[in-house]
Design a protein that fits this description.
This protein is of the alpha/beta class. It has ten helices and twelve strands. The chain folds into three domains: 6-81, Winged helix-like DNA-binding domain superfamily/Winged helix DNA-binding domain (Arc Repressor Mutant, subunit A, Orthogonal Bundle); 90-162 and 255-279, Periplasmic binding protein-like II (D-Maltodextrin-Binding Protein, domain 2, 3-Layer(aba) Sandwich); 165-252, D-Maltodextrin-Binding Protein, domain 2, CATH 3.40.190. 42% of the residues lie in helices and 23% in strands. A five-stranded mixed sheet has the order 4-3-5-12-6, sandwiched between helices. Strands 10-7-11 form a three-stranded antiparallel sheet. Strands 1-2 form a two-stranded antiparallel ribbon. Strand 8, helix 8 and strand 9 (206-212) form a beta-alpha-beta unit.
Length: 289
Amino acid sequence: MDILEPDLLRTFLAFVDGGSLARAASIVGRSPSAVTAQMQRLEDIVGATLLAPTGRGRTLTPTGEELVGHARRILSVHREAWLSLKGARAEGKVALGATQDFADRALPDLLRQFARSHARVRLDLRIDRTAQLAQALSEGAIDILIAMRGASEPDEIGVLSEPMLWLGAEAGLAAENADLPLALLDPPCAFRTAGTAALDAAGRPYRIAATSSSLTGLRVAVRAGIAVTVRTTRWMEDGIVDVGKRYGLPSLGQAEFTVRYRSGAGQAATDLAALICDGLNAKPPVPRL
């Protein structure tokens, strides 16, 4: 009997979560052709078509939809088995810092898995902006960091890349005019820089309609239809959707996130960092030239 390889299932779920083979390739750090080959291999193992052509893209077949739940459970069991073996005798404290991008979605499930196997380990959590978290890591105040990537750092253990999107209220803007209203975080912010640079290059007029020091404030402005903003799919929810095509906005680049680990933080921190990299599909960093 052929085995449903975890690596193939991770790529399959990257397609499910990203919505296209191109986004899946970006998430898992492979070329589009390699991702296509992996999906063909998975279809051979399953013995049925998982993805069907639809327009310019692909969609899940009934068999593909059925596989989604199985794939998530298989990968979850793999992680739980590994953690259980590693964490039975672990204790102490792990300090984790992350941006809001990961606090709402990815982290709760990963921390739940970690707590089950490392029941005696205390977690100190800090949700903040990238600059503040990077400083805390350098001062030894946190052991693991998940944030936007700037320059290559020697303590990086994982990198993930995701497409940046124009996000706005599903109901539309409260007031439309020639200048595109933007909701932006206070500088410094890589998303802010990418959005304004793309609009400047396209010659698209815009105005800053709302600013905030936190993503919570930014979300309020976007949901209200005051303005659109730039984030990734991690920020999408009911009422906040991709509006790039609706408003004819220019393409954006990739957002890079990094997982960094403080050397000597301890075995429990090492286990959690490895779990995070696996759960986020973070790849070993390639030094920038």
